Hints:
The structure is a single chain. Helix 3 (54-67) packs antiparallel against helix 4 (72-85) and helix 3 (54-67) runs parallel beside helix 5 (91-101). The strands form 2 sheets. The chain has a two-stranded antiparallel ribbon. A two-stranded antiparallel sheet has the order 3-4. It contains 6 helices and 4 strands, in the order αββαββαααα. It is α+β, with helices and mostly antiparallel strands and 118 residues long. It has helices at 2-5, 30-37, 54-67, 72-85, 91-101, 104-113; strands spanning 9-14, 19-24, 40-44, 47-51. A hairpin with a 4-residue loop joins strand 1 (9-14) and strand 2 (19-24). The chain has one domain (2-111).
Amino acid sequence: MTAIDQRGMFNLLELREGDKIDFWLLTDEPFDQSRFSRRQAWDIAGMRIQVSRPEDTILMKLRWAQMSGGSEKQFTDALRVYEVQFGVLELEYLEQWARRLGIDALWMRLKNEAQVLP
Length: 118
């Protein structure tokens, strides 16, 4: 309940396979409002769920990497989403929010290290 009370983030873990789903609660921050307005609806296992667009996932992972003092796991997660989704990413959106969120250095590092998949 702490995540809900603080309008934070929590995870759902499936222990047998090790799958994890991140849930982010909506805040009044401009970036959160933008992420929420861009969400996509997917049908998964007979349920309709709302998911973040890949650009917003990349930005959140980079933000968490910075907030945690340099988490390589968060950075690598962002890098992999970028590499797999590159062909459909809104790069201008990523550039704009990387500046606004103060994660420019991590964004530049990600672009330099990325090995985009065909």
